[in-house]
Write a structure and sequence with these properties.
Elements (H helix, E strand, L loop, with lengths): L1 H31 L3 H17 L5 H4 L10 H26 L3 H15 L2 E8 L4 E7 L5 H19 L2 H4 L22 H10 L5 E5 L14
Antiparallel strand pairs: 1-2, 1-3
Helix pairs in contact: 1-2, 1-4, 5-6
């Protein structure tokens, strides 16, 4: 008897997880697609799959609470937990398939290195900043270097991650301002490192050129 009850509860939970995944994928498609009519249609497909296969959706079952015994609360709880887990799994799976803006920036910088005389020694990101440690030739002024990096990376991010532009104020990836300083063996590495450190506390190294021996690291100084 206990084994039968446990099997039933596991089945309720499993059907709730599947329902959560269906509604999660439908919701992601609705929010992602530019055409909201198509997005709504995809969301409807998710709801249809739930109804057609008898999956357990909390919002569909809670309406029957008034006519059910107290033990029905356990089914509702299982449905809610299952829906939550299923939605999380769907969102996690979709996120893994998406191209991240940071990856696009890193890959684009490698392409810039091949086209221009600009060598990226380190690329790092903070909450709303990106830091580049580059080596180039005197032919390029600092303003030219910034223009090349900003224009090409922005173009590629918007091309490969169109959803990014919708989230930006004014539709611009980069602000008009920037900070530039030079580095030499006897120069001001510590000044630059401190500047990067003071920009925030979530610095993440996206790329490091380990072939360039003797070059500083943006976080070499504490």
């Amino acid at each position: 008897m206990e084994k039968v009850k446990l099997t039933r509860e596991l089945r309720v939970l499993a059907l709730a997880v599947l329902a959560g995944m269906a509604i999660g994928i439908g919701g992601v498609l609705y929010l992602t697609l530019e055409n909201k009519v198509v997005g709504a249609l995809m969301f409807t497909v998710g709801l249809y799959a739930i109804c057609a296969h008898g999956l357990n959706l909390f919002t569909g079952k809670v309406g029957y609470l008034v006519n059910k015994p107290v033990s029905y609360l356990i089914t509702l709880l299982e449905s809610w937990v299952g829906n939550l887990c299923g939605t999380y799994l769907a969102a996690f799976a979709v996120r893994q398939t998406r191209i991240k803006g940071e990856d696009v920036i890193k890959e684009t910088c490698m392409e810039i290195s091949e086209r221009y005389e600009i060598k990226f020694l380190e690329i790092g990101a903070d909450k709303d900043h990106v830091h580049f440690l580059v080596q180039s030739v005197p032919n390029y002024s600092p303003a030219q270097l910034v223009k090349i990096m900003k224009s090409i990376t922005a173009r590629e991010v918007f091309r490969r991650c169109p959803e990014v532009k919708k989230k930006l104020w004014g539709g611009n990836l980069w602000s008009s301002g920037y900070y530039v300083s030079t580095v030499s063996e006897q120069g001001n590495e510590k000044v630059i490192a401190n500047y990067v450190k003071n920009q925030g506390d979530e610095y993440r190294k996206l790329y490091r050129n380990n072939e360039m021996e003797g070059q500083m690291n943006l976080y070499d100084y504490e």
